[in-house]
Write a structure and sequence with these properties.
- This protein has one domain: ApbE-like domains (T-fold), CATH 3.10.520.
- It has eight helices and 18 strands.
- The protein is 30% helix and 27% strand.
- Helix 6 runs antiparallel to helix 7 and helix 7 packs antiparallel against helix 8.
- The chain is an alpha+beta fold.
- The model has no long low-confidence stretch (mean pLDDT 92).
- The strands form five sheets. Strands 1-2-7-8-11-16-17-18 form an eight-stranded antiparallel sheet. Strands 3-6-5 form a three-stranded antiparallel sheet, with helices on one face.
Length: 299
Amino acid sequence: MNFEIWGLTGSLHTEHEHQLAFAEERLWLRINAFDAACNRFRTDSEISRLNAQGGGVVAVSETLEAALEAALMAGHATGGLCDPTVLPALLALGYDRDYDELRDHDVHASAPVLPLGLSAIQLDPVRHTVELDPLCQLDLGSSAKALIADLVADDIAPTGGVVVEFGGDVAVRGRGPQGLWVIGVSDSLVVTGHEPRIGLAHGGVATSSVATRTWRVDGELANHIIDPRTGTFARSVYATVSVTAASCVLANAFATASLLWGEEAGYHIAQAGWAGRLVRHDGTVEYVGGWPQEEEDPR
């Protein structure tokens, strides 16, 4: 099945047809829970209320706690380059509305805002509370999207193989109908059907790009990847990076951070034990860490 939400497309496939109804139920249960907890564009969402709190200890739902744990894990795994405290920096670049409204505008930027970093978030998994620095505001969109894919795949895995794709992030568990799941890896939001395809049996694959989700800021083409070292959008030697890892959350984290690591991205991916496909702006493709063999589409 295919679906669309938050301006993103996704798909859900199961090894057996009898799994599909349960899989769809879990997918929408997870999406609705994360929408209520983590959607910063909803004024009534849990994260919007947390961002408006101005500090202090706040009890969090199970969903928001899981999203915060995933964001902190992604941040620690990438040396702080995946930073959930980037919201003020995004707002300074005009990303204060849904992307569909933003992409056709040329906005005026405020001064860059340096994210406060992971230390501004104190999550207590025992008391199920979080305390933010009074000036801290969160955006969990990237890691939360990957986490949804992982959680839905984990929900379905006991019943058979499953693959969940959400906005270019993919979680795979178990067998496909013909063995390995064959996953297309696209460098853009436009799927042509000629994308390279890799075979996966478990884990995650994610793609991050400075060439998608772009808009103009003071006449310059900006993107949604914030470099926490500068407080402004990424200026990367790579246009797109795809990473395979043990989970979709980790794949997403390393794909995003690789756009900021630049020439050192391949080293960091390999050192972590993952594999990557890195595409430069001129279309040159580089592979690192045993990128899966390309497969024929079995359909």
